[in-house]
Amino acid sequence: MSIEVANESGYDVEGLDEAEFAALARYVLDAMHVHPQAELSILFVDTTVMTDLHVRWMDEPGPTDVLSFPMDELRPGREGDLTPPGTLGDIVLCPEVATQQALTAGHSAIEEMLLLTTHGILHLLGYDHAEPEEEKEMFGLQRRLLLTFLASR
User: Fold this and answer.
1) Where is the protein situated, by its record's location annotation (predicted)?
2) Which domain, by its residues, includes 133?
3) Total structural domains in the chain?
4) In angstroms, rounded to a whole number, what is the distance separating the alpha carbons of residues 53 and 23?
């Protein structure tokens, strides 16, 4: 699996280890039966860049926590039936926004960014949370994936 992680945010977050985010992405993609030759990019950016992306692509003001940009519209596979190889897409995270959210939620900034990474990957795989049933499915899945990843570390 080709997973590229880059921190261009300039924001100092204690414990932001790019290898940890690559390991999480690999874990989630394996659990979702995504082909091992799939490609994924995870990029950490500052609030200015995130604001520009949020306005341009979502027509929403201000920075947001995470944006997902799917490429080949891959969907989860099944046991013994992987997705075809391809480019999953890009996940863009804003550590400054994530840190603020973490304070409100009562956990660390790293935990928040790991959650947001999982959330972003699920969006790339076609999950959404616009409707209550979709939200229940997606949030339950992201919780299970993140907790099992953290327990395996």
Assistant:
1) Cytoplasm
2) 2-152
3) 1
4) 26
What does the pLDDT look like over 43-89, one tens digit per residue? 999 999 999 999 999 999 999 999 999 999 899 999 888 888 999 99
Instruction: Please report which helix (H) or strand (E) contains residue 132, including its range.
Output: helix 132-152
33 annotated ligand-binding residue: no
pTM of the entire structure? 0.95
107 is in an annotated binding site: no
Residue 69 pairs in a beta bridge with 90
Contacts of residue 124, defined as CB under 8 A and 6 or more positions apart, other chains included, come to: 40, 68, 69, 70, 74, 88, 89, 91
Q: Is the pLDDT of residue 15 over 80?
A: no
Cα 140 from Cα 43, distance rounded (Å): 25
Angstrom CA distances, 54 to 17, 49, 51, 128, stand at 25, 9, 5, 17
For the domain that residue 49 is a member of, what is the CATH number?
Answer: 3.40.390.30
